[in-house]
Amino acid sequence: MIGRSSHALRPGCVPAAPRAPRHARPSVTPQAPDPATAMLLPSLAAALILGVTPVREPAPAPGGYRPPALPLTGYQQSVCGRLTQEGTWDTGLVRVRFTTGTERAPLPVDGVDYATPAQFWAGFETQVGDLPLNAVVLGVALASGDDERLVVATQIKIENPTDTARKVVLGAELYPSHESPVVPSRPFDPASAWKRDGRNVVRDGLTVATWVGAEPELEVEESVDLPDATAARFTWRLEVPAGGSKLIELKTAGPPLADGVDDAAWRKRFNRQSYALLEEDLRWQGVERGTIAGVTFRTRGMERLLGHSVHWIRLLGRADEFRVERLSDVPYGRPATDAAIEAELLACLVESGMDEYCATALGRMIAEAPERAAELDVERRVAYLHALVRCIRLRPELPGAGTVAPLVAELGAADVAVLPWHHPDVVRRDLLGLLEALGMPTDGLLGGLREAETAPGSVAAHMQAARRAIAARSGLALWDELLALQEAADRQGMGSMDGGEMDGRFPAGVWTIFRAAFVDDHGDELHLMPGNSSGFVEPGTLLDTTWLPTRYGLVSCQAYYSGARQAGGWVKYRESIPPARMTYTLPDGVGIDRLRDGTSGGTAELVGDRLVEIAFDETGRGRGLRLSARVAKG
Questions:
Q1: What angle separates helix 459-471 from helix 505-518, to the nearest 10 degrees?
Q2: What is the pLDDT of residues 192-241, one digit of tens each?
Q3: What is the pTM of this model?
Q4: 94-133: per-residue pLDDT in tens?
Q5: What single string gives the DSSP state of each residue in 106-156?
Q6: Hey, is 485 helix, strand or coil?
Q7: Around 148, how many Cα atoms within 13 Å sit in the side-chain half-sphere?
Q8: Residue 203 forms beta bridges with which residues?
């Protein structure tokens, strides 16, 4: 499900996220650490909350422009303190390791389970003596005023299933953080001053840890000479009653977003937060945000392919506020490697209904367009300007057309390849459509747009084939390509493909393909469900897109196939600019005999093999138009 900023970001409109079961065991298999990365970053051990290895250093941005590094934002929850398979983690300011017994042996952890992007939980199970221990770890971006920091909260539950009370000793040790490109971090400094301040451990005036619940013994060193020297020790001596349990909560924090912050003010909020409150906060920052394109597929993998792709994009911005800041194709706050990707990702969010959420960033990007376009080579310039036009065409009230249109006119013939998930004809129509709307000449412009060269069998090749299938109204061919993309995706949806490298371009490509399959609004006609296929609507399933923005207004579509000689759909339309014609495509792979009588909400006429021309009456504008077709025998 794809969040809609105009209503679903507000408190009260978000369905509750699923409570983490026991230790928040997600339905994925942990990924083994990458030995090469482990050698480079010993404290990281290469296993993150999302179960992926850190990306390599980005190459220079194509075309010259390279946005600055991203600040700490909601998506960095996914780092979740860099929880490793050994049960240690690093917030960027302090490292944490749990111990057991008076000898302070490392807590035995066989492996960590990582949650999906929908949750940002991680957890593990182990033993303390002969008692079971369940640990849940989550990461939240916690803000107080302009001060925002990554907070990692750990909840440990020790259960006693026996009929006698048991005594256990559990500890935690804090170490200076290792400097890392993955999250904002402070390098080791032997001059750092560590101290206890009430219920807090403080490093150089910054709060790094506190606890909730059972009172521990706490020892803090004033300074440490080596990166692996212990700066603070927590010791909990617990008596677990027969048949009962004990809870321990430890919270640790990363460095602030900027220097010169008021640590005392931030600490007040930090100390008030328990694991339960932070978990609730995480729900508001997560992906449970109502629907804009809730789609039911016959496979969970296809739902993941669509849903996770858009939410990956959203989490590359700011997940907990009504604005997007910088966006990147590289996770964990690195500068973008593609000079046009920030605009491309923004366009995907606007096309998925998150226009309010993106308004600030879009306004900034339009204002910067003349300067930024001048820095790009012609291929990146086409990609960058097309992404801005995708936003402007859906928000005609924006004053951006007059800024961007002259830059489009300067492209000339532009003999360049478009991005693999775009169709050259669509890119051309969008760019020229902006000029036509302003009465500017278009003769001889953009005649050289073409497909990029792609390796056979690659993700890019499947994306190109999917766009060709949509253009040909071949829903079955599209479904085959989507299945190939699903096969190439990992458990993070489209977050990582082609060898496992994390790459924000793939989510952009997947959303663009799905939107093209749901709606074609790139000319003077509005075509609904051009990529409809029996793969989408296998008997007993329903495809449902909810209030997608188009240049002609908001549209909701359903498609179904009963398996009992009936197929069809349902359309709602909030008119903004009336199209010259509106059509709906019935599913490919289902033989259509004729439209059934009694269509409500307007008129429908079968004008092709599967193409239905529709028009709303006054009743239909309010409650929608329902289509029903009879399926041919056999």
A1: 20
A2: 999 999 999 999 999 999 998 888 999 999 999 999 999 999 999 999 99
A3: 0.65
A4: 999 999 988 899 998 877 776 554 345 778 899 998 899 9
A5: EPP-S--EE--TTT-EEEEEEEETTEEEEEEEEEEEEEETTEEEEEEEEEE
A6: helix
A7: 17
A8: 194, 206
